[in-house]
Design goal:
Shape: rod-shaped
Helix content: 25-40%
Number of domains: 2
InterPro entries: Ig-like_dom (IPR007110), Ig-like_dom_sf (IPR036179), Ig-like_fold (IPR013783), Ig_C1-set (IPR003597), Immune_Resp_Modulators (IPR050380)
Largest sheet: 5 strands, antiparallel
Organism: Chelydra serpentina (Snapping turtle)
Pfam family, one: C1-set
Order of helices and strands: EEEHEEEEEEHEEH
Protein name: Ig-like domain-containing protein
Oligomer: single chain
CATH class of the largest domain: Mainly Beta
Keywords: Disulfide bond, Immunoglobulin domain, Membrane, Transmembrane, Transmembrane helix
Strand content: 35-45%
Length: 174
Amino acid sequence: CSTDIQYFGAGTRLTVLEDESDISTPDVAIFPPSKQEIKEKSKATLVCLATNFYPDHIKLVWQVNGVEQKEGVRTDESLMDQSSKKYSLTSRLRISRQEWSNSKNRFQCFVEFYGKGTQTFNGVISGVAGCSISEESYLRSAMAGKSVYVLLIFKSALYGIFVMGLMLRNKKVQ
């Protein structure tokens, strides 16, 4: 049971504003993972940052290709900047290197802000191509390698037959 007068029951919160000019909508940005983390841990952490909003009635949701993500998500409590009296919130989505390395993957951070009604803001970032090899590309490379190997063995066998033929011919001549 909370003794703070802003809370009712199990968490319903009331914020009283002097006028609507105090309401400030969030700025939302997504930051890509560090290359060092991808290299060392084979993981990628995306960071969503919502800043400059008031009041702190906000909900943050991550989506990958339009599907809500709950696994690998960590969202901090919103913090107030004492000088500006506005809040900021960070959330992290941890994914595999393979997910990040697929340029077709689209990562979105949706921020629902409850000010004058509900407004939704979002940040978007796409995966990066070329950070790792796809299964199809790997299979294609493996087949090319096998073909080159078979070709070299065949060429060596032909060369051996040619040299043996020369030796037999030289033996007959002597």
